[in-house]
Structure formats: structure tokens, C-alpha cells
From TrEMBL:
This is PurE domain-containing protein. Residues 122-254 form the PurE domain. The lineage of its organism: Bacteria, Bacillati, Actinomycetota, Coriobacteriia, Coriobacteriales. InterPro entries: P2CMN_synthase_LarB, PurE_dom. GO terms for biological process: 'de novo' IMP biosynthetic process. Pfam families: AIRC (PF00731). It comes from the Bacteria.
Length: 256
């Protein structure tokens, strides 16, 4: 279990009184913040340190490992757990091990403990270029909701029919942070950033024909955006974009 504030104060007083070496205090706090479940070292202090608790990356882990991690996190007092990059078969196996997991097949996200009420300052707008990009866009949108954000979605508004995007100009200008998800040539992020007054987080996807190189073309286009205020995450990383968007949306400021 993590060391609570009262216990840390008591330990610090022992250090001040010469009853404990400073190195002992450091070791005590460090060891208490890590839960060793054999196949994983869980950071139980992450929520207090960063504002966001441990998230489980499901790809490459067995259902038994995921279930064990979730049990340990819940047992340590974490209210809810997000599991990314699941598939339906593995999600069913996790549930069969007694974990009350809600699974969404589009985003490939599993949630234990439900989604909290939004407590961010404004709206996270997730803009999706095409229907083929929706799995990544939904990973971003649902992750942002899990992290306590009000989320609005704009779907299939890519630059191939830019009038579809321009019809949502008010939504773009009201957003506090925008996640722009696109494959192919990745032009959507630049267009959105040219219309918005808030930060834009670009997510290249692996959608496209051969010369898209599995998302590398969109990635390079977004990195070379001529519009200011664009940051870029890795290919298909909807989770990472949502995490960054949530940090921005929870900064003190005017509500939108």
C-alpha cells in the first residue's frame, strides 16, 4: 500500500529527531509505492504523483496477468482501471476470471469501475478524418472520458470533403483542446489548427495505401504542419493523445 501523508510526516519527524537516516525514509516511501505481483511492478503512487492512476496496456499480456494486475490495483484502493489494446476474446477471458470488465470492440478498451463525471475545464473535441480512423479516434475519445473530460466527437470530416469540417466551425472554436485523427496524407491536423485557438494534438493512423507506409506519411506531414500549436503523438496512439489532452483540459483556466 502507498504511504499516506500522515505516515510520511511521522517518518520525516523521526529523521529530524535523528531516529532514522534520510536514506531509510527514501527507501521506505519508494518500496511502499510499488506493488510486486511477480510478473509486474505496479506504481501505486502514480495517481498522487501525476493525477492519473496506473493504466494497463493489454497487448502482449495474458488474461491471467491482466486480471492479476486489475485485482492488485483495486485492492490498493484504485477506484477504476483502464485496460488498452484488448480484443474480444481476451476481454472475455478476463471477465471469466471474475473481473467486472466493460469492453468496447471499436476502441479495444476495457474499463473496470466505470467512467467518472467530467471535471475538466472545457471540452475535448475529437475530430476523425474518416470512418477507417474510428478505432484510433474512439480510443482517444473514450480514454479522455475515462480521465474525466467532457468529449465531443466529429466523425468523417476529412479534407476530401472539407465542407463537412467547416460546418462544425463553432465546435472547433469552442473546444479547449482538439485531438485530430487522420491517416492517408494526414492533412486534417493542419486544417483544424488553422481554424482553432486551442492546442491541437495530431494522431497519425496507419490507414492508407502503400505509400502511406503504415502511417509514416501522415506522421511526417503532421510533424511538418505549417499551422502553429500542433503537437504530434505516435502512429495510432489515441491513448497518448487523450492523456495529453486531459492534462491540458485540467489546467486551471476559464471554463469553455
Amino acid at each position: 500500500m502507498p504511504v499516506d501523508e500522515q505516515e510520511v510526516r511521522a517518518l520525516a519527524q523521526r529523521v529530524a529527531a535523528g531516529e532514522m537516516r534520510p536514506s531509510e525514509l527514501v527507501d521506505r516511501v519508494r518500496s511502499a509505492s510499488v506493488c510486486d505481483v511477480g510478473f509486474a511492478q505496479l506504481d501505486m503512487d502514480r495517481a498522487a504523483r501525476t493525477g492519473v492512476p496506473e493504466v494497463v496496456y493489454g497487448a502482449g499480456k495474458t488474461a491471467e496477468q491482466i486480471a492479476g494486475i486489475v485485482r492488485a490495483l483495486l485492492g490498493a484502493g484504485q477506484e477504476r482501471v483502464l485496460v488498452t489494446r484488448l480484443d474480444a476474446a481476451k476481454a472475455a477471458q478476463v471477465r471469466a476470471r471474475g473481473i467486472d470488465l466493460a469492453f468496447d470492440e471499436v476502441s479495444r478498451l476495457g474499463v473496470v469501475g466505470g467512467v467518472p463525471e467530467p471535471d475538466g475545464c472545457g471540452t475535448v473535441l475529437v475530430v476523425c478524418a474518416g470512418t477507417s480512423d474510428m478505432p484510433v479516434a474512439e480510443e482517444a475519445a473514450q480514454t479522455a472520458e475515462f480521465l474525466g473530460n467532457r468529449v465531443q466527437r466529429l466523425t468523417d470530416v476529412g479534407v476530401a470533403g472539407i465542407h463537412r469540417l467547416l460546418g462544425h466551425l463553432d465546435d472547433i472554436q469552442r473546444a479547449r483542446v482538439i485531438v485530430a485523427v487522420a491517416g492517408m496524407e494526414g492533412a486534417l491536423a493542419s486544417v483544424v489548427a488553422g481554424l482553432a485557438s486551442c492546442p491541437v494534438i495530431a494522431v497519425p493512423t496507419s490507414v492508407g495505401y502503400g505509400a502511406s507506409f503504415g502511417g509514416v506519411t501522415a506522421l511526417l506531414a503532421m510533424l511538418n504542419s505549417c499551422a502553429s500549436g500542433v503537437s504530434v503523438v505516435n502512429i495510432d496512439n489515441g491513448f497518448g493523445a487523450a492523456f495529453q489532452a486531459s492534462l491540458i483540459n485540467h489546467l486551471p483556466g476559464k471554463e469553455a
